[in-house]
Amino acid sequence: MFTTQTVISIGAEALWITFLIAAPMLLAALVSGLVVGIFQAATQINEMTLSFIPKLAAMFAVMVIAGPWMLATMTDFMRGLITRIPAVIG
Question: Based on the number of CB atoms within 10 Å of its own CB, is 32 exposed (0-12), middle (13-18) or buried (19 or more)?
């Protein structure tokens, strides 16, 4: 039966999966931005565009390394969601 508890549980699971999938790339951007920021503070180079390329490279590396896991996690969630449709509807 389609209840508010079902909607809340599906939404909570979707938010958790979104967090899990986004976390590696966000952490890579955070760490690379921090390292570049420390480098800029140490060398007194105040170029705003300097942190863009290392962040992009770090996020690309994470996508290459963790991409298959991210895709498998999202696929498992969607497969579970689709297989639960008959139980949710009626």
Answer: buried
Report the C-alpha gap between 49 and 38 in whole angstroms: 15
Cα distance between residue 7 and residue 14, in whole Å: 10
Which pTM was predicted?
Answer: 0.79
Please tell me the distance from the alpha carbon of residue 72 to that of residue 77, in angstroms, as a whole number.
9
pLDDT tens, 21-41?
999 999 999 999 999 999 988
Q: Is the CB of residue 28 less than 8 Å from the CB of residue 88?
A: no
Residue 32 CA to residue 26 CA, distance in Å, equals 10
